[in-house]
Design a protein that fits this description.
This protein is α+β, with helices and mostly antiparallel strands. It is about 55% helix and about 15% strand. The chain has 15 helices and six strands. α5 runs antiparallel to α11, α7 packs across α12 and α14 crosses α15.
Amino acid sequence: MSTTLIVIFKTQSPVEASIVRGLLEANGLPSVVSSGVSQSLFPLTVHEQGVTISVRADDAEEARRVIDSHQTEVTSGQLVRLRDEFETLQKAIDYRFRDRGLLEHAMTHTSRANEDVSGGVVDNESLEFLGDAVLGFVIADLLFREFPSLNEGQKSKIKASLVSTGTLARLAEELRLGDHLLLGRGEEKTGGRRKAALLADGYEALIAAIYLDGGIEHAHAFVAREFASQLVEVRDHGLRAQDHKSALQEHLQSHDLPLPEYRLTGTIGPDHRKQFQVEVAVRGEVLAEGIGPSKKEAEQECARAALQKLGIRS
């Protein structure tokens, strides 16, 4: 019996690969799934990513026959439903992917990948890493060009607020990104589609997918559109637009109320990606909650949510 492996199926969609592999296994044909990964953070050209399915040379002819005989089922079932759902997301972000597999990859949470026994589904953590870098670059570029009079420290403070977990989660909610996340059953049951950390991570992964699919120009255009209103607020109100804690304190003092109290209520995520959960209270009454990669950022998000609840800021 030959041990040589022959590639019999290629796709840009991990979900499609999982469907095909399950089909082969149901017909007694073992297979191997492998995926390609981009080799550069900032490639000069967009690299193809994809998933291949291989079988033993002796099984190749039968495997192709099985796939061909079920081609309608593969293309009209779960994969097409996913693509229809992603069509709504593409309209929301005003960008059409050449490679929809990248969009699917960006929406695939770790919990979904962990539940896939075939190993063919890859989570979006690497895309989150890349998206964080692309987002940081674009925001820095926008601040550099639009606010030349601000010094480095001022720009850094504004940038930190703009790329905070709270801000990204809100932007993700506006796009209804949570509706399109591919989650595991456990994460689905615990309300993962509404979790700020998951939404922010998915948003960063989406930016990376746009960058890999269309290049830095399209990624830059998307970020510029998404953050346009925040940049207008900075232009109109300066640094105070992003200093929510000071704004909340001043509002409370103007109404003869005591200073707000910020309390750490917990942390989520692994040590290298820990998120802090904080609540803000006045006279013992909790006004709002916030989450962020540091206590300071979580407190700012808390204050922003409190101001929104009080009708001070939108």
